[in-house]
Design brief:
This protein has helices at residues 13-21, 39-46, 58-64, 76-88, 103-116, 130-141, 178-181, 184-194, 276-287, 296-310, 318-337, 354-360, and strands at residues 2-7, 27-33, 53-55, 69-72, 92-95, 120-122, 147-155, 199-205, 217-223, 228-234, 243-248, 252-255, 258-260, 341-342. It is α/β, with parallel strands linked by helices. The chain binds nicotinamide-adenine-dinucleotide.
Amino acid sequence: MLRIGIIGTGAIADAHIRGWRAFPDDARIVAVADVVPGRAAAKAADAGLGDVSIYEDTDAMLREERLDIVSVVTPPSAHAGVTIAALDAGVHVLVEKPMAPSLEQCDAMLAAQRRSGKVLSVVAQNRFRDDTATLKAVLDSGLIGSVSHVRVDSAWWRGVPYYDLAWRGTWEQEGGGCTLNHAIHHVDLLLWLMGRPSEVTAMLTNAQHDNSAVEDLSVAVLRYERALAQLTSSVVHHGEEQTIVVQGAEASVSQPWSVHADVTQPNGMPAEGGDPARTARIESFAATRAPLAHTGHDGQIDDVIRAVLDGRPPLIDGEQGRAAVELVTAIYEAGIERAHVRLPLTAEDPYYRSAALIERAPRFRAESALDPSLA
Ligand SMILES: NC(=O)c1ccc[n+]([C@@H]2O[C@H](COP(=O)([O-])OP(=O)(O)OC[C@H]3O[C@@H](n4cnc5c(N)ncnc54)[C@H](O)[C@@H]3O)[C@@H](O)[C@H]2O)c1
């Protein structure tokens, strides 16, 4: 039985608690930690965890509990410190997204993974969805031909009070706005579907959140060999209509699922009704994909359990967590410097460390407008 610890017991810890408990034959939560006194005990009681150890000091928990795996569910600024301590203590780690606010911290986490030989997985639960898995399978099948364009709308809506929480809405602690903290899910999906772009440009703004210093909207354009992608990252979109649309030479496919296949007339204009046979081929390929046994956080936790028990790498490892942070960093660099940023970003890039971002990012709203007493 794998002994599981939860570090950080705020909002999303519930998804981890549910996830680990979905596999009672393999894993059991034995310890819960949070730096705020009383919080871990309250979460354990609310979740009905029963007889678990409660800690305010993560290092003490790592020393005393002989844990196999921890979920790191702290704010992003604490991910690197806690993850490295856990790996160095010989404990496998599932860390929430974003992996860390800077590439420097991601690389320190990767170094700890390598020296420990333990599993490090970064949460990207949207890969464990049937609609995104179908999109990926269709793309990999080659049925839509070479890709020309991808449109990703990472459309979220958050009201003004969302940014009242002290660590949110700051470049120093949240590490950025919706591009890093909301769109990272879609950034990961885009990288999964298309790989790393060669070049990025972007614009950032804060359209609606007077209590936040970070962006609440960004629009980025990404270059692939011949294709372009556009990524909108937003917490100002009413209705949160999140979409990925991939245009190939033969057809377009999207999530939510739809297929269109145009075909040319002799004069180059699209024929009415498109190509029903091609559409049917793609539809039937998609329909034959077996549904996932577990979805969302449960799906990823299942994968981490199998990786630990079978001694194999997890499906979403630290390199992939880093890749998402790299693309977000490039979007910030492009937006702040009004530049075209080439990838990959190395340690020589000024934005590799948080310091450049913290120093150069625009404060869309004055820090003095933020109320530090709201924790
Ligand atoms: N995958 C998703 O869909 C999803 C959704 C929401 C949040 N998240 C991510 O999960 C993480 C946590 O977000 P949240 O909304 O639960 O935040 P939260 O503020 O509600 O909870 C974080 C908790 O961590 C505790 N904490 C802070 N530093 C700590 C440390 N060093 N050791 C132990 N505990 C510490 C805080 O006291 C707090 O209780 C963030 O990285 C966030 O981006 C992911």
